């Protein structure tokens, strides 16, 4: 029995339940990870949280897979459960319940639900003739049928089968107007909101009553008092969200009333129709509240195709775990697989972001601060009685960022929250570089800089904990802090006056950098299904133009910056070493081959446009952290011109 405190707010999050026809892949990990991130966020806010995941074990699809494996269905589905639980445990995914639709408690609750709706008249017996997609367990609607062609499933584009049999029907048509009214009154029901338009369009085309039983399939939940019929798998599966927490069980009535409705239900966009149309209609018929939000995330793309077992391009989470560890994979999936769109998963891209985001921006900041403090024999860092101007600006900036982060997390846009956190990390790096604590002789001034940095890093660790719990707890221990979820830590961050005392401890490196030029192990490059995870190198002599997706462009950060110093690079006739001020993003060193076209006086104090987030590389022994944008006068002329804003703007302004 779930224990809850009635005096605290609650947060109930669910994942889709996964078909047990294979081991978990990266797509199922992604959905489950998002739920874990959401749950951990509300743990930081001191909510009572309940996290449900599990497996969908009935239906024709599972029965056929079991038959091919020459195993009884129950034995077949049992064989996959340990793989799911092990994967979630390996990735530090902490769920409260793992439901299986073959559980006796679920079977009884679904039969209770069916009987209730039969008695109310929302379920009736009739006859069904039409097309059915077994892989998707989907009935094909009339508007999806073209009589001149083979009937294909609108979801997966595979050929469907014609079936004709007696069936029980749910009166879906009776709920069309109520559904449309609900969507109108709750425009934030679906995340991202633009997917709500797809649902509204579907419903407005007209809803027909839904067949919810089969007589030709035997593997499923028998209909109450009519064992010839087996419950349609979606009517069975969708109800897991209520049966797992006590629906239909008198001994769990208080628990159910406390937890329902779900606060966030996370799914892939391919099953949105079932969750945003059928599921709300089922709940309306049952006189139950509807979920507060459904987050329908995009697909993970591998080699420009949706990741799919049938396409043989699935990625094994275990291979990634063995090579990168759980927190790195968690970070990359949460930040760079945007929930609003389909996103390409790429090993090279993962390693680049580990180097730039985690090792350079965050890990290096911590390492420099700890090393410098130990060098000055500063182990106990106390907050000053009065903060100086730059430190107050940094603290106030964090509070401003925190408001944005909280809103993104509340709205389900976790990747945007992470992006905002890293804006603050860049600002802390800029502050640390500006203050140059390695040059400070005054002990009080040095202590103030270290204290401000400690407070900033502490805040960053708390905010990143839902995504990287192991690494952030390790980081907090370097500040001598054990994470305790006994208070609302997010509210405390918003009210924190920077008055903590930190005891600094040395620790092993948080993040190790990858050698991006090293050939990847064959196991990483290619999983057992043959899905290549590393993009082929592009031939630099190929001048053909290739279209890119908007998400590819969104990865490139182009900022305005002012060149504050320019020095010649010894033994080079074309290179300058530039120091560029990017405002809140800090000062970065960029090495550029523009010496033959511009003098030092032409550049110092001038505002230009730069690619900001290039992987650092060494040129003539100097590390370059970006690229200045230039254009040739013509293809036949080696003279270049700099790309500059026609009017001066704030340093760090992003081009979009």
From TrEMBL:
Gene field: metG
Enzyme Commission number(s) of this protein: 6.1.1.10
Family: Belongs to the class-I aminoacyl-tRNA synthetase family. MetG type 2A subfamily.
InterPro entries xref list: Met-tRNA-synth_bsu_C, Met-tRNA_synth, Met-tRNA_synth_2, Methionyl/Leucyl_tRNA_Synth, MetRS_core, NA-bd_OB-fold, Rossmann-like_a/b/a_fold, tRNA-bd_dom
A GO molecular function held by the record: methionine-tRNA ligase activity
Leader peptide range in chain numbering: none
Subunit field text: Homodimer.
Keyword Chaperone: no
Function: Is required not only for elongation of protein synthesis but also for the initiation of all mRNA translation through initiator tRNA(fMet) aminoacylation.
One biological process term in Gene Ontology: methionyl-tRNA aminoacylation
NCBIfam families (UniProt xref): metG, PRK12267.1
Residues that coordinate or bind Zn(2+): 133, 136, 153, 156
Alphabetized Gene3D superfamilies for the sequence: 2.170.220.10, HUPs, Isoleucyl-tRNA Synthetase, Domain 1, Nucleic acid-binding proteins
UniProt KW keywords: Aminoacyl-tRNA synthetase, ATP-binding, Cytoplasm, Ligase, Metal-binding, Nucleotide-binding, Protein biosynthesis, RNA-binding, tRNA-binding, Zinc
Name of the protein: Methionine--tRNA ligase
Motif 'KMSKS' region: positions: 306-310
Comment on bound cofactor: Binds 1 zinc ion per subunit.
